[in-house]
Amino acid sequence: MIKGIDVSDYQGTGFSTSGLDFVIVKATEGRSYINPKQAAQVKRARDAGCVVGFYHFLWPGHIQDQAEYFVQKCLSIKGDLLFVDWENTSSGTRASGAEKDAFIRAVQRLRGKSHRVGLYCNRDFWLNHDSTAFAGDGLWIADYNENPGRPGVEAPWVFHQYTSTPVDTNLGNFASRAALRKWATGTGSSTEDDMPQYVNLGIDKPFTLAPGQDWDAIEFTKEWTDEPGGHANDGSVFVRGAARYTGQVSLVLTGVPVGTQFQVRQSEVDSSGKYVADHPIAELIGTEGGTYGIVPLVGRVGSGRQMRIRVKAFQDTPVTVKSAVLKAMVWKED
After folding, report:
1. Domain assignment of residue 192, yes or no
2. Which of 69, 116, 168, 241 is the most interior residue, by most CB within 10 Å?
3. Residue-wise over 218-255: b if at least 16 C-beta within 10 A, else e?
């Protein structure tokens, strides 16, 4: 992933660009405000070689006028990113989801041939106020969850704003600055190798591990999303190589005695289904009232190989896996 910041007039023009790949600058708000430091902030970002973006703070009403004001006043050039900032205004009001959608579409009509146009909002807005889940060309999500690069949303995203200290800081879901620039200029799409594809799998009913049973692969019998196409129906494989991936598997267990171990690992298989490599073991510890755990998934699987999730219990009584939900972003490789 790559790192960037977003700035408004409050941040001034002396911000550091060291280690940054992108800078997104507030351009306008409503129908009358222009960031007076926009030009200097943009120059600083461009001089550092950063990918540049702009955002408009949306108010309710006069949506077409706001869209036209934004594209007229932001100092964008071809290939810069454009976003709408959808959140509560200083008066406690907010644009509706329909108005947010209308603004994005208006900017796409005005500038969509030379710019990516996306949505910025926080996790609460995305989950509780957005009924359409429309983010234009990409979702920029704010979630201060102390877990950079893993916002608490299931939707694909392009940027994660994870802190405001000392300045709004973001991770970009791209392999490199060049990959972001390629996407921003329209020569790469959100389904090409520089952008991740989303996988969301689960099980439709609990399954039980017998006492003394060896490592057992989770059969993911629910497939909500499989954009890379690596999961066969009711299969245990969640990604096929060559690919990189990051994500998590959430488990709910019963029957694990308090204080005892339940182990989880990623295992690679070849095209014949033979296990050829095991990844490090993660341990869950039994707790009263059931056991719950989230196991991070980060890795790479080579060409011709596939990745599974395997589990193992050590007690003399059966253990039931009541729920297993896998969420991952996958970058396909040539």
Report:
1. no
2. 116
3. bbbbebeebbbebbeeebbbbbbbebbbbbbbebebeb
221: nearest Cα among 205, 238, 203:
203
**Across-strand partners of 322?**
none
C-alpha dihedral (212, 215, 219, 220), degrees to nearest 10? 120
Residues 220 and 177 occupy one common structural domain: no
Q: pLDDT tens digits, residue range 27-79? A: 999 999 999 999 999 999 999 999 999 999 999 999 999 999 999 999 999 99
The pTM of this model reads: 0.59
Query: What b/e sequence results for 67-86 when a residue is b if at least 16 CB atoms lie within 10 Å of its CB, and e otherwise?
Result: bebbbebbbbeebbbbbbbb
| Two tokens, residue 314 | 């050590």
Q: Are residues 276 and 149 in the same domain?
A: no
**Alpha-carbon torsion (204, 132, 59, 86), positive or negative:** positive
Q: Is the CA virtual torsion 67, 69, 75, 77 positive or negative?
A: positive
Q: Are residues 167 and 220 in the same domain?
A: no
In a domain, 291, yes or no: yes
For residue 287, the SS3 value is coil
Q: Is 103 left (phi over 0), alpha (psi -120 to 50) or beta?
A: alpha
For residues 174 and 201, state if they share a domain: no
Tell me the angle at which helices 63-73 and 97-111 cross, rounded to the nearest 10 degrees: 40
Q: 321 is in which domain, residue-wise?
A: 197-332
Q: Which amino acid is at 215?
A: W
